[in-house]
């Protein structure tokens, strides 16, 4: 690395302050590992590369709102996994004509209408169970869970909004999830 930054945490801080060299060094440090990690979620190499590039562009665009990352690698991997999952749902499956083996596999995996109905009912039932578990929480816990998991707020954003410390926000979510697990049938 040609930067004064020696580790990922320093590079992260550099990105937060708008240092493009730190962003470039962070990309160099993790691009290959991110690509290998992405292959466990998709076989579409173009999709993986797009997601990695989008990830770094968004890091720079959101640099002033980035949280303090205790483990930069885990943060990047988590965001990449989410991006791949989201983009995989929206992109149509494209299979090259010369790959007969893969085409045969997908042709034989047509989902019956009955299977679709069963999956839909299971998803609805799970949604109801989750809703019941959330409604058993205190109002403050419900607000915290909503902010963290439905609005995708960081602990820092939660703390500001709820007028509590970041550690208290983490504890609130931890206890809420523990309570929900205890109320799960």
Task: Summarize the structure in words.
The protein is mostly helical and 185 residues long. It has helices spanning 8-16, 20-38, 45-61, 72-90, 100-107, 113-135, 139-150, 155-162, 166-183. It has two domains: 8-90, RNA polymerase sigma factor, region 2, helix turn helix motif (Rna Polymerase Sigma Factor, Chain: A), CATH 1.10.1740.10; 136-185, Arc Repressor Mutant, subunit A (Orthogonal Bundle), CATH 1.10.10.10. It is flat and about 50 Å long. The N and C termini lie far apart (52 Å). Mean pLDDT is 81; it is low at 1-5 and 94-109.
CATH level-two architecture of the largest domain: Orthogonal Bundle
Helix/sheet category: mainly alpha
Query: The CATH topology of the largest domain is what?
Result: Rna Polymerase Sigma Factor, Chain: A
> So what's the overall shape?
flat
**Radius of gyration, Cα only, in angstroms?**
21 Å
- Beta-strand content: under 5%
Task: Flag low-confidence runs.
Answer: 1-5, 94-109
Q: What is the CATH class name of the largest domain?
A: Mainly Alpha
Count, helices: 9
Q: Layout of helices and strands, plus pairs?
A:
Layout: H1 8-16, H2 20-38, H3 45-61, H4 72-90, H5 100-107, H6 113-135, H7 139-150, H8 155-162, H9 166-183
Helix pairs in contact: 1-2, 2-3, 2-4, 3-4, 7-9, 8-9
Domain RNA polymerase sigma factor 70 region 4 type: 129-180
GO molecular function, one term: DNA binding
Protein name: RNA polymerase sigma factor, sigma-70 family
